[in-house]
Amino acid sequence: MSAENRTDRRPPRHIAIIMDGNGRWAKKRGLARTAGHAAGAEAFRRTANYCRTLGVEYLTVYAFSTENWKRSEEEVSGIMTLLARYLREALRDMEKNHVRFRFFGDLSRLSPELRRLCLEAQSRSDEYHEVQVNFCLNYGGRDEIVRAVKAFAQDVREGKADPDDMTEELLSSYLDSANVPDPELVIRPSGELRTSNFLPWQTVYSEFVFMNVLWPDFSPEDLDAAIEEYHRRNRRFGGA
Predict the structure, then answer these.
(1) Residue 7, pLDDT score
(2) In three state form, how does the secondary structure of 190-217 look?
(3) Which of 6, 103, 154, 206 has the fewest CB atoms inside 10 Å of its own CB, making it the most exposed?
(4) Cα-based angle 87, 209, 71 (whole degrees, multiple of 5)
């Protein structure tokens, strides 16, 4: 369904995507896994641009997990190279696109150059408010919660916080996603039926849509289908 012909119902304010299936896409074509990641990068560009035309305010994507370091050095290097290339392009086109960037995850393990690009993209785009893309990079949901608890504990030690003041809202303010609304819709292509340590705190009431398309083949029509499925759900948030 094209942007012109889709339903008039508004899309979710915040969509999160587990970008999965790059390696299997490449294997099916007899290509190196790095080729799959390159195709996946194009799918991200396509999807991000379409989200902007739909009026989605926040797009969060699982770019690289804390577990992905277990992959081969060649594959990890290829992913990092693609990320750096994308960020350089984003910085070059920032004044035209007006996309705000945030990064969820522990950036300390990244190369100094990639970390610099992340921080530069985040700081230079801070003034934009039309659409925000959150990259989960060296991200794991459990790791995020552990880091948040450690940060709160440090504030307690320094007299800046009282343990008795802890609430869900306060803990949320220590997460990487502080000040970002929780995603209403989470999409996982590739046919896998698990969340893989992706935003466990933020997605407790998200609607999950699992799709059989591999991520490099993910199209605007697939996004429309996921949004249509989201609109068919009855979101009760624990109520009757």
Answers:
(1) 45
(2) CCCCCCCCCCCCCCCCCEEEECCCCHHH
(3) 154
(4) 50
Say which of 68, 106, 143, 217 is annotated catalytic: 68
Using one digit for the tens of pLDDT, what is the confidence trace for 86-127?
999 999 999 999 999 999 999 999 999 999 999 999 999 999
Based on the residue annotation, tell me whether 68 is a catalytic residue of this protein.
yes
3-class SS string, the chain: CCCCCCCCCCCCCEEEEECCCHHHHHHHCCCCHHHHHHHHHHHHHHHHHHHHHHCCCEEEEEEEEHHHHHCCHHHHHHHHHHHHHHHHHHHHCHHHHCEEEEEECCHHHCCHHHHHHHHHHHHHCCCCCCEEEEEEEEECHHHHHHHHHHHHHHHHHCCCCCHHHCCHHHHHCCCCCCCCCCCCEEEECCCCCCCCCCCCCCCCCCEEEECCCCHHHCCHHHHHHHHHHHHHCCCCCCCC
75 has a pLDDT exceeding 90: yes
User: Which residues lie across from 131 on neighbouring strands?
Assistant: 99
Is residue 1's pLDDT more than 60? no
Nearest to residue 107, comparing CAs of 176, 50, 61?
Answer: 176
pTM higher than 0.90, yes or no? yes
Q: Which of 14, 55, 1, 43 is nearest to 185 (CA)?
A: 14
Find the catalytic residue in 5, 20, 97, 164: 20
Please, what is the average pLDDT of the chain? 94
pLDDT tens-digit readout, 158-189: 999 999 999 999 999 999 999 999 999 999 99
